[in-house]
Design brief:
The complex is a heterodimer of chains A (171) and B (323). With 171 residues, chain A is α+β, with helices and mostly antiparallel strands. Chain A has helices at 28-35, 91-98, 108-123, 140-146, 157-169; strands spanning 6-13, 16-23, 54-57, 60-63, 76-78. In chain A, strand 1 and strand 2 form a beta hairpin. Chain B has a domain at 217-321: 2-Layer Sandwich (Enolase-like, domain 1). In chain B, a hairpin with a 6-residue loop joins strand 11 (249-258) and strand 12 (265-266). Classes of the chains: A alpha+beta (171), B alpha+beta (323).
């Protein structure tokens, strides 16, 4: 491996900065899991189709399996480990627990990060494919469309939708 | 994945000098690098370039920066007001996560989702010229019905490019020899005998902007996409249309189809059949039939001919009813 194919990067993850050397081929997903030991973020399909690896980059949800780690030098990353505040579950996490928004739990970190990003997008007035007119309420149709990038093989969708809807309403 | 060098570009000239593949959102390129379909030696990351903005053009049109994300363009108030079909097409594509990554320039350069193209163990004239097209007699229920050749029957996957083609948007690019521009209807050449030649961009060109021209007709436009599930899937057939009617007569009309050919398909026969005539469902049906008369379905995709015809009629009828 020549030096041109590896890069030293500075990753700011959940408020902590780490300096590491990555193979340019390494995805951010693998860097988080293998190099930083943050295994909350899950590898499902590894091709951008399931959403299990969803994280927040500078506050916006992205899939970490199609993000090269080298491109994340200097950006702010939030993973599921960073959603709780001062050891307390966020309202979104608490709603997932209370309303059974999961069964096996493998997709849950991605669902949580995606929902956190989605709520911010909605708050910013972003439309979805089912939006007609102005900024809509987050009804079931809106939530299902906006969360369509996160698959749940246990099909816990009804509870996931309820947990997100309850969080949105109580905001 | 093959090893590669990586650099960030801070200026367009620096990016052009790098003699590398351009990386933006990476949602298609990185995916194809993992499977070995794409094997660049060097990537130059264009997201640090000052190309992420959206601005009003001097003549009132809109200029979309090449690295503006799908999400940002779709949510832009000017896009939603003056080019609703563009916002709708972007929102109909991919997922929230991917729309936050994918960009204007990258979207136009994405590769087909033909399963044979995506699998390096299969022959594919688009990936490896001269090896053949297994889709021609293979699994092709979601392939082309218009303008295909025995060399390739794949479709272009972009939703965004469909209204851009209908609206005569213009791609602006830079090369070391200077800038240039290409209207969307000419950006993707007919597949012919060279499916590997996907755009008419000069070698090494970097897309910098896409210009949406001013046309009153685009304000009343609609993108409708039919797919195999309710969300997060590529189109089987999609339609972008815009309609301007005065005193019951079609003053201007734009129609383009997605999912039916190797490029976004501008439905010029349908437009010609409608222009200057009455805006009635009968005329919409005649126009749609005129466009699809040239269709040559493969063994397993004749349903797309009916679907495309019906979709054109449905979208035009909806637009006429909106007045």
């Amino acid at each position: 491996m020549t030096d041109e194919t590896r890069t030293e990067i500075s990753l700011l993850v959940n408020g902590e900065t780490s300096v590491l050397i990555v193979d340019n081929r390494r995805t951010l997903l693998d860097a988080l899991r293998e190099q930083l030991g943050l295994t909350g973020t899950k590898k499902g399909c590894d091709q951008g189709q399931c959403g299990a690896c969803t994280i927040l980059v500078d506050g916006r949800r992205v899939v970490s399996c199609l993000t090269l780690a080298v491109t994340a030098d200097g950006v702010g990353v939030t993973t599921v480990e960073g959603l709780a505040e001062d050891g307390e579950l966020s309202p979104l996490q608490e709603a997932f627990v209370r309303l059974d928004g999961l069964q096996c739990g493998f997709c849950t970190p991605g669902q949580l990060c995606s929902a956190a990003g989605m709520l911010a997008e909605h708050a910013a007035g972003w439309p979805s494919a089912v939006t007609r007119g102005g900024t809509p309420d987050l009804d079931e149709a809106e939530i299902r469309e906006r969360m369509s990038g996160n698959l749940c093989r246990c099909s816990a969708y009804p509870s996931i939708v309820r947990a997100i809807q309850e969080t949105a309403v109580s905001r | 994945m093959r090893e590669f060098a990586y650099q960030r570009a801070t200026g367009v000239r620096e990016a052009l000098m790098a003699d590398a593949r351009y990386l933006a959102g990476g949602t298609n390129l990185v995916d194809l690098m993992k499977t070995g379909v794409e094997t660049p030696d060097r990537l130059v990351d264009g997201r640090g370039l000052d190309l992420g903005g959206i601005r009003t053009a001097g003549d009132g049109g809109l200029v979309l920066g090449a690295t503006a994300t799908n999400s940002v363009v779709a949510a832009d108030a000017r896009v939603r007001r003056d080019y609703p079909a563009v916002s709708q097409a972007l929102l109909a594509g991919a997922s929230g996560q991917l729309r936050n990554m994918a960009t204007v320039g990258g979207n136009l350069l994405q590769r087909t989702r033909c399963a044979y193209f995506a699998d390096p163990s299969e022959p594919c004239n688009r990936r490896e010229p001269g090896t053949g097209c297994p889709a021609l007699h293979g699994v092709h229920h979601n392939h082309a019905i218009l303008d295909w050749t025995e060399h390739c029957v794949a479709t272009h996957p972009s939703d965004f490019a469909v209204p851009l083609t209908a609206f005569d948007a213009v791609v602006r690019y830079e090369t070391l020899a200077g800038p240039g521009e290409i209207p969307l209807p000419e950006f993707y050449p007919p597949v012919g005998g060279r499916p590997d030649r996907e755009t008419v961009l000069p070698p090494g060109a970097l897309i910098t902007e896409v210009v949406l021209p001013v046309a009153p007709v685009t304000r009343r436009s609609r993108y409708r996409k039919v797919r195999e599930r309710a969300s997060y899937a590529f189109a089987t057939v999609s339609v972008a249309a815009a309609l301007d009617v005065e005193d019951g007569v079609v003053r201007d009309v734009r129609v383009a189809l997605g999912g039916v050919a190797s490029r976004p398909w501008r439905a010029r026969r349908a437009e010609a059949a409608l222009l200057g005539g009455p805006a009635t469902p009968e005329r919409f049906r005649t126009a749609a039939a005129a466009e699809l008369a040239a269709a040559e379905p493969l063994r397993d995709n004749a349903y797309k001919v009916t679907l495309a015809r019906n979709l054109i009629v449905a979208v035009l009828t909806e637009l006429e009813g909106q007045r």
